[in-house]
Amino acid sequence: MVVMHLAGPQDDPRWARDYGPWTGLGILVLWTALTLVGGLLVLRRRDA
């Protein structure tokens, strides 16, 4: 089962990726986690 499907020719630089679908999903999860942790830290600092 494919996690992420990119439409377009693989030799086109706009669509080519150095990582696979699971790595792309991991990157998405990492960015989401970092954003949530950053928001939590800002909220704790400003909301006394």
Provide a short characterization of the protein structure:
This protein has 48 residues and is mainly alpha-helical.
Q: Your description of this structure?
A:
With 48 residues, the protein is an all-alpha fold. Helix content is 54%, strand content 0%. The chain contains one helix and no strands. It has one helix at residues 21-46. The protein is rod-shaped and about 55 Å long. The model has no long low-confidence stretch (mean pLDDT 80).
**Low-confidence segments, ≥5 residues, pLDDT <50?**
none
- Elements, N to C (H/E): H
* Helical content band: 40-55%
Beta-sheet strand percentage?
A: under 5%
Q: Give the overall shape.
A: rod-shaped
Helices and strands in order:
Elements: H1 21-46
What labels describe this entry?
about 50 residues, mainly alpha
